């Protein structure tokens, strides 16, 4: 069974090609439009090439840089002194891999089908490794010398798949799934990535109001595996996400890559014990601020009934009426208050008043009377939606 099942971390569903066929241009890129010189190919053919790829084994090194336009979290974490923390393992992947949402990181990756994957996050002389081998998932933080272990559910992939996309392939999958008639997909020449010849697939919204300027995916010309993923914002500056292999080998990694034995003296935390510790060690936010959040959560209790979707494609906005006033940030801890203020812009309109919490990719408008508008759209688009919904 495992031999016939493709590793979804590295395979784009064949259905993507069929969906995109009706919406993308079929004009081939000129072979001379980039380096190296490759045969002409249409966007349709390139997507079919990605869909037909069956890359299940590889090893390599890649860099991922993320810039959401957020202020530093460092002062917030130190100022709150662990508010809401549970004293869990520093090796827990659900916490450790959140580091990838900001800054620049170097990772080593290895894969041998759906049953064996390894990802190592390098940070100077320290390393964090996440290994999925059959029924076991191991994580090791060399800095704290802590080990996290849990059993993988039958047929499930490593926890890394449930957290954030990390390889260019995973990032490409997410974008290609969203392709539709609101999207322009073309071939934008060729490139050399990690010593491999590649075509550049360029994806752009046809609509105005999206925060996404373009997505570029460098696709291996020989086997159809995405080698680099770049997501650019309409705000310009550094890409929101720039992830690409600097070295890649498609040969099967040695079996020893996926074996793990806890170092002598290391603290080993089991997944179930970690969850129990988090629940028992939870700290409380100040009463009034927590009360405000509690009222907001009540509104989320009817999430399925209260959620409305406005627009389509890249300018889709989700609207939720919580039925409760927004929590007052001036009742939050001083450090958290400053952080929230740095994220938000006060706005007014016919809808009333509210705050837009912004990043370079996803923005959210929280009105003072408890309505939420969120999407990968500009601040003006959110305000317009709120005005129209008044």
Summarize the model shown.
With 390 residues, the chain is an alpha+beta fold.
Explain what this protein looks like in three dimensions.
This protein is an alpha+beta fold. It has two domains: 15-276, Lipoprotein localisation LolA/LolB/LppX (outer membrane lipoprotein receptor (LolB), chain A), CATH 2.50.20; 287-388, 2-Layer Sandwich (TATA-Binding Protein), CATH 3.30.310. Helix content is 23%, strand content 33%. It has helices at residues 15-21, 43-52, 74-80, 93-96, 160-163, 168-177, 271-280, 287-300, 303-306, 334-343, 379-388, and strands at 57-66, 103-112, 116-123, 126-133, 136-141, 146-151, 183-193, 196-205, 212-220, 226-233, 241-249, 267-270, 307-310, 317-321, 344-349, 352-357, 363-367, 371-375. It has a twelve-stranded mixed beta sheet with strand order 7-8-9-10-11-1-2-3-4-5-6-12. Mean pLDDT is 76; it is low at 1-34, 73-86, 158-164 and 298-304.
Question: Secondary structure elements and their pairing?
Answer:
Blueprint: H1 15-21, H2 43-52, E1 57-66, H3 74-80, H4 93-96, E2 103-112, E3 116-123, E4 126-133, E5 136-141, E6 146-151, H5 160-163, H6 168-177, E7 183-193, E8 196-205, E9 212-220, E10 226-233, E11 241-249, E12 267-270, H7 271-280, H8 287-300, H9 303-306, E13 307-310, E14 317-321, H10 334-343, E15 344-349, E16 352-357, E17 363-367, E18 371-375, H11 379-388
Parallel strand pairs: 6-12
Antiparallel strand pairs: 1-2, 1-11, 2-3, 3-4, 4-5, 5-6, 7-8, 8-9, 9-10, 10-11, 13-14, 14-18, 15-16, 16-17, 17-18
